[in-house]
Amino acid sequence: MSRKRKNTEPIRISGLSIIDIAEEGKGVGKADELVIFVDKAVPGDVVDVRLVKKKKNFAEAVIETLHTPSALRQDAFCSHFGTCGGCKWQHMQYSAQLTYKQKSVESALQRLGKVDVSNIEPILGSGQNQYYRNKLEYTFSNKRWLDAADMVDQAEGREMNALNALGFHVPGRFDKILGIDHCYLQADPSNQIRLKVRDYALQHNLSFYDLRNHEGEMRNLIIRTSSTGEIMVGVVFAYAEQEQIDGLMEFLEATFPEITSLQYIVNHKKNDTIFDQDVITYAGRDHIFEEMSLGNGKSVKYKIGIKSFYQTNSDQAYELYRITKEFADLKGDELVYDLYTGAGTIANFVAHSAKQVVGVEYVPSAIEDAKFNSKLNGIDNTIFYAGDMKDILTRDFIAVHGKPDVVITDPPRAGMHQDVVDRLLEMEAEKIVYVSCNAATQARDLALLTEKYEVVRIKPVDMFPHTQHVENVVLLKLK
């Protein structure tokens, strides 16, 4: 008795109306009771789709035919759209992006945190939605992503272009890099630097990194810029000779005299993280400076090293901190705890308006930056501690430093540890200002904090145009 052969014919659905956007940025349609997530679809589209994955209650699909384009659609501005993992929403008008980001925050807070969002404030959009990033990191690879033309050449036996590439990881493929011609995320001379580095490496036969076998000389390129006009370039090598390193560094110094910090790293590890790697300064300083206005002719400067954490949208970082400070409504006599302080950016931003700010952060190097930034700005009312938040923020710690009047917390995407939430409930500060890059985990934490706190203000802030990501600031007051 022979088995019945499984039907492998793809499932297609015609005339699907896209009615919403999912949290991961895909369009949402419904066919009977099946929820379908459609890549690159915009609410208002009517499309024919092909399912690429099907579960019991949902499916994922790609567009085969766009019958009726949504009024919210626009032409993508980047030639890499559709393959590159960044700027996934550039085919949707920016005003619509803001609408759906606000909606995603409202949905998460209501559904997961049971928060009343009737008084949520309008999302603050980014004044600049191209060339807004101050940091990009590119990867060298000897196995670039093949485009449609490459596939035809390969199928017909023609010689393909060289497989070396400098660019971004293709989503879902750790070993494939999309070579970038022009990136709209970071202002010039970022693109020129990347292209010149790539061309130099090719002309001088420097091998591009093999991400599977961990071989090769050129590994990563990091470019940081600041609103003060300073530029940092860091080249990460793998198995390069010193002569090769010096050659590229000398070339960069001569070609781009505007670089104020030129550095390199030799990384032999199997991952790209550089936090435990030695950084060698080849020319200029080992840092650049960022500056933010505080109003009344005052400003605060920040030292940014190659390993430093700093919000990647400088203009919106200022707006985010301004809103955080506004929510805290400091009068000058408050003790403020700044949890997950990073390089002390928020702590130093609000220090002029508080009696004292105590910052806590897991990464020791970030705390050193925070201390330096306070000294740089003549701020003497900040104290910083490095360590795991749940271990540092103890009853003894609070007994030594005092019960805070205001807590500012800006945790990573995973949100706050249960022990930290418990300590906040125990401390009973009058106000908590919760800054989050993940409304879902923020909602979870807010649900726990409502035991003693009520949500008073909510303000989403868009830091990353053309992506589904959104920051959110919430003010809680003790009941």
Characterise this structure:
- This protein is of the alpha/beta class and 479 residues long.
- It has 11 helices and 21 strands.
- It has a 7-stranded mixed sheet with strand order 8-7-6-9-10-11-12. A 7-stranded mixed sheet has the order 17-16-15-18-19-21-20, with helices on both faces. Strands 1-2-3-5-4 form a 5-stranded mixed barrel.
- A hairpin with a 2-residue loop joins β2 (27-31) and β3.
- α1 runs parallel beside α11.
- The model is unreliable at 1-5 (pLDDT under 50).
Q: Structural class given helices, strands, pairing?
A: alpha/beta
Largest sheet: 7 strands, mixed
Strands, total number: 21
Shape: globular
Main sheet: which strands, in order across? 8-7-6-9-10-11-12
- The low-pLDDT segments are 1-5
Radius of gyration: 25 Å
Arithmetic mean of pLDDT: 93
Give helix % range. Answer: 25-40%
Number of H/I helices: 11
Query: How much beta, percentage-wise?
Result: 25-35%
**Separation of termini?**
72 Å
Features:
single chain, 479 residues, alpha/beta, 7-stranded mixed β-sheet, globular, disordered N terminus
